[in-house]
Amino acid sequence: MQREEINIDNRFGEQFAGRYVFSEITWAKRSRIIQKHTKYSEQTGRVISIDSFAIQAETIWASLKEQPQIKPLSLEKLLSEQEGIPIELGELLSKIVNKLNGMAHEDLRFLLEQLDEESRTRIFSSFGFVKSSAGPQINSEDNPPKQSCNSSKSSTS
User: Using CA atoms, how far apart are residues 51 and 40, in angstroms rounded to an integer?
Assistant: First the structure.
């Protein structure tokens, strides 16, 4: 399974500085995380809602194998709206974990196709992908968020 190690500097706060190691999770683990946070209609079997935020937080937590000794990350901290982690740190961890665990555009597209238009718009808006009347959002492929870490990827058998 693939692993990725990153060293985070003090940019996100001293408490988050240090070495983190992430590892690819199994297909079964990822499937269970997705099912846990997806609600289906009993009548039609169609997806009613997907808590993509909780899916992402649990995937980060399941992939995390090592962190600094003071343990700055926890599932509760990843999920917390009040005592959570900085936005840019969350985006960085999401990017690493999605790459490791193969959360490809096709997977996301499949999940999103199961939702109605209003739910899709709400999800896209929460990620900053819906344009407001004031113009485009700053998070785009042409203008990605800056990273402040050293990253090295390795594969292990």
Answer: 12
Radius of gyration of the chain (CA): 17
Q: Which residue has the higher pLDDT, 86 or 125?
A: 86
Whether 54 maps to a domain, the answer reads yes
Write out the residue range of the structural domain in which residue 57 sits: 2-127
pTM of the predicted model, to two decimals?
0.68
- The verdict on residue 135 lying in a domain is no
Strand pairing partners for 7?
Answer: 19, 150
Please name the residues in contact with 19: beta carbons below 8 A apart, sequence gap of 6 or more: 5, 6, 7, 66, 67, 68
pLDDT digits (tens, 9 = 90+) for 118-141: 777 766 665 555 554 444 444 444
In a domain, 78, yes or no: yes
Query: Which residue type is seen at 143?
Result: N
